[in-house]
Amino acid sequence: MDLNKLSPQPGSKRNRKRVGRGPGSGRGKTCGRGQKGQKSRSGGGIPARFEGGQMPLVRRLPKRGFYNRFAKNIAIVNVGDLNRFDADSVVDIADFLSSGLVNKLGDGIKLLANGELDRKLTVRVHKASKAALEKVQAAGGTVELL
After folding, report:
1. I want to staple 21 with a disulfide (CB 3.0 to 4.6 A). Which of 25, 76, 102, 124 is the partner?
2. What is the pLDDT along the chain (146 residues), one digit of tens a residue?
């Protein structure tokens, strides 16, 4: 087998449609678009969402909810999740990201009091609940707010 003897499968390649090349081509004059009308014009045609003039589905359905553009996207870490870190270590944002506790930093990390902590840690987060602060301090650790 030689590279110069390769060819595509019969019927897999078709010539492109060349329109507007005279009456003998079969696609001259109106170029296969027919006579007049919206679809014969350049740039013409109707969008897929058009429903023939009736009230569109999007406008017929009731609207619910509200999207707050100013909401903060804060990642949550529970006190019980901190047991995976070594005792007497400093746990900061880089550790949360590398361990998989936080996927995306967003607007900060908040420590919540769900679970129990059984080791002394220094935790650096943006926010912490009062109960989470008490649990970390009861285990002998500290929480530093960034």
Report:
1. 25
2. 899 999 999 999 999 999 999 999 889 999 999 999 999 999 989 988 899 999 999 899 999 999 999 999 999 999 988 888 888 889 889 888 888 888 988 899 999 989 888 888 888 999 999 999 998 888 888 888 98
CA 90 to CA 142: how far, in whole Å?
A: 10
Question: Which two tokens mark 28?
Answer: 């001259």
**pTM assigned to the model:** 0.56
Which domains are assigned to the chain? 75-145 (3.100.10.10)
* C-beta separation of 22 from 29 below 8 A: no
Number of helices (H), then strands (E), in the chain: 3, 6
Taking the C-alpha atoms of residue 10 and residue 30, their distance in angstroms, rounded to an integer, is 31
Q: How far apart are the first and last CA of the chain?
A: 68
